[in-house]
User: What shape does this take?
Amino acid sequence: MIKKTLLTLLVALFMQTMAKADEGMWIPMLLEKYNIEQMQKMGFKLTAEDVYSVNQACLKDAVVIFGRGCTGELISDKGLIVTNHHCGYGQIQYHSSVENDYLTNGFWAMSPEEELINPGLTVTFLKRMEDVTEKVFEGTTSDMTNEERQKIIGRNIAKIKSEAVKDTHYKAVLKPFFHGNQYFLFVNEVFKDVRLVGAPPSAIGKFGGDTDNWMWPRHTGDFSMFRIYADKDNKPAEYSKDNVPYKPAKHFPVSLKGVNEGDFTMVFGYPGSTYQYVPSYHLQMLTETINPKLIDVRTEKLAIMNRFQEADPAVRIKYAAKNARISNSWKRWIGENRGLEILDAINKKQQFEAEFNKWAKSNAVEYSDLLVKYEKVYKDYTNYNLTYGYYREMIRSNGMEIAYLASQMEALKALYSADEVNEEAAGKVKEKLKERVELFFKDYYKPIDKELSAKLLAMYAENIDKAFQPDVYDLINGKFKGDIQKFVDYLFSKSIFDDKEATLAFVNDFSVKSIKKLEKDPAYVLNNSFKTVYEDEVYPKLKKYSSELAELNKAYMAAQMKFESDKVFYPDANFTLRVSYGQVKGYTARDAVYYKHFTTLEGIMEKDNPDIYDYRVPAKLKELYKNKDYGRYEVDGTVPVCFVATNHTTGGNSGSPVLNAEGHLIGINFDRAWEGVMSDLMFNPEQCRNISLDMRYVLFIVDKMAGAGYLLDEMTIIE
Assistant: This one.
C-alpha cells in the first residue's frame, strides 16, 4: 500500500513537472542551459546543438520570418517554404480578381514559370544571436535619470548593430528581454524575391472561416506554399528572371508517421508578444475597459462588412483580407476575457502581489512601493489607452477609409510646404503614392466606407471622454445640427478621395497651390481633426505613462526574479526566434465536454453546407472522399486533418513548424483553442492548446486534389 501511494505521488509530481514544462517560449541559444534535459525526458531525441548552432547547419536554419508577422519553414533544398494560408492571404488576394479568383479556386504553379511574383514580400533567416546586455548598459549608472540612461543605451545599441553587420549584406536587430533587464542582438539575412507556388481554395485554406476561428475541433487546411529565389551566388537579390531557387543550409524532412496522444512536440517560430509578468491592474484595464469597448467597435464593423460581402462576390473578394484582420482580434479579445474570468486571473495576480509585498517589505524595501505606483499610473493610463485604441479603430484599423487615404497626402504637403521644392524627391513620392492609390481602390467599396464612417463617428462620440472629442464634432453639431449621417453624405459628396481617377490626378498634378485644396477637403479635415487630438492631447500623456510603466515593468520583473529565485523564467514574446515544447493532448473544454487530440476528413464532410460560404466543401474533395481515394495519407479509413498540443504559442507563431522528437515536420501551427487564448497573459496547462495542421493532410491536398505531386518529389518524406 505504501509503495502504491509513493508511486502515485511520484507520478503526480512527474505529471506536474510535465505540465509546467509546456509553458514557456524559450531562447534557442540557451536550451543547453535550461531546457534540453527536460525536453529529452519528454522524448526529444536531438541535442541543443541540433536545434541552434552557429558552427553547423541546424533546425534554426530551416525557419524564417514570413513577411512581417508570420513564421514559415523550408521543406525542400530548392527554396520551397510552407506557411499558413492566412499568412499568404494578402498575396493570394493580390493576385485574385473576379476572372482569376484564386481565393475561391486556389492556385498552383505547375512549373517555375507559373510562380507568381510578390512585390514587397520578404523572408528573413536568423544567422546568429548574442547576449549583448553588458555592451548595451556600458556607461550607464544607477543615479542617472531615465532620459539620460536611455540616450546612452540608444547610442550603444546603434554602435552594436552597426559593428555586427559591417561589410556584410546582413541586417541587425537588437531587442530587450525581461522588460529591459537583458538585451539580445540578432543578425539576419533578408531575401526579397519570394514567389507564390500554391494555395488551396479558401474552402479548404479558410474552411470554417470566422465561425471556426480560434475554435477546436478544427478542420482548416491552413497552408500555402512559396519559393525563395536568390542570385547565382545564393545571396539575397531583388526580383530578376535570372534569379534561381535558393539552396538552404537546412530543410525539414516531412513525416508521414503522424501523431499519437502523448507524443513530444516542438514549435519553432517567432511569437509576437505576451504579457506574462504584468500586475493585476493591467488585467483589470483589459477585461473591464479596453477589450469590451473595442469588441463593440469591431462587432459593428464586421456586421456592416458581412452584409455587403454576402450580397456581392466582388465585394467579398475586396474585403476578404480586411474582414479577416478585424475578426481575428475581435474573437481573440472575447476569448481572452472569458478565459481570464474562468481562471480567476485577477484574483490570482492579487494573491501573488500580496505575497510579493510581504517579501519586499522584509527583504527588498526598494521594491515595496512598486504596486502602489502601478495602481496610480494605470488609473490615468487606462483612459488614454482606450482613446488610442479607438483612434486606431477610427482611422487605421480598416475604419474610415477615405480619411486614411487622405492622410497619405501628408508627405506631399510637407515637400511642397518647404521654402524650396525638391522636384526630384516630389516625383518619387508621387509615384509611390500613385501605387498606394491603385492598391487602395483595388480593395475599396464606397457603400461600406460610408456606413462604417457614420457608425464609427457615432460610437466615438458616445464612448470617448469629451476632452478627446475632435473639432469635427463641432462641425457636425453646428452646420449639421448633430446629424452624423448628413455629415457623412456631405463628406462623400465633397471629398475627392472616394474616387480613384480624381485622387490619381490630384497626386500627379500636386503643387504648392494644391495645399489649400487638400486642407479644405472634408476627408483630410476629418483625419486631421482626429490626428490633432491624438498628437496634442493623447500621445504626449500616453508616451509619459508608457515610459513610467516601462520603468516599473523593468523593476517589477527584476523583483519577481529575486522573489522567486528558484524559478526558471522565460522572457515575454517579442517576435524573436523561440522554442516551445509540449505534447499532443486533448482537453476538457467545459463540463461533460472532452475534445480528442485530432480531427479527420470525416469532420469536414459532417460540416459541409452549400448554403454557408465557410462550409462549402469543394466538389473535388467530396469526390476523393466518396471514392476513398486517400493514397498513402490514409489512416484508419480516413485522412487526418488537424491536431492539438500543449505548446505555448501566440500571434507570430502562425505558420511555425511543429516538429516531432526526431526534428521532422509533422504539422504547421496556425491557431489556439478558444478556451486558452488568455495564454498571452496567463497560461492554463489544462486548456491552453495550440492547433496545428497535420502534414499528411497538406500532402494529400497537394498530391490528390491539386495534382501538384511534383512538389512532393523535391521534399524529403519520411514514411
Remarks:
- The CA atoms of residues 21 and 517 lie 62 Å apart.
- Confidence is low (pLDDT under 50) at residues 1-20.
- The longest helix spans residues 522-563.
- The chain has three domains: 24-122+192-275+571-718, 124-191, 280-560.
